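Lecture 7 notes: from sequence to structure.
We start with the chain below.
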Amino acid sequence: MEISMHRLSELPKIAQQIIALGNGYQVWLLNGEMGAGKTTLTKAIGNAIGVLDTVSSPTYALVNEYLTEADRTLYHFDFYRLESEEEALAMGWYEYLDSGNLCIVEWPQKISNLLPDSFLNIDIGVGVDEERIFKISGHE
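Predicted structure tokens for the same chain:
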């Protein structure tokens, strides 16, 4: 599925659409160039699922953990600064996957050999006049 966004005010609605499409997937991969809006999208998804804290980029921490109103957890990963897949393993990547909680991953290409078989893929493209194009597909 492809969704276009022309104004940032459209993002809450798009987040709801992505949540509906992502139902049944525990791992969501966000792909896009620097500044495409990966963290901004994660913030909107967090708001839509009732995250209790402010979602921010985990660029230096590699992972941020957020509790929701429903007493669930959202794990938000940013692997941009990851130097090796071994670093992801050392931080407990598989334990996060085994948690049963939603895992949103920025820069998933850094851990391509560690990804599960099933995930929701979200490619964010930048169009004319700051337009964002979200290409969303599930993988089994």
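Points to note: The first helix runs from residue 11 to 22. The mean pLDDT is 94.
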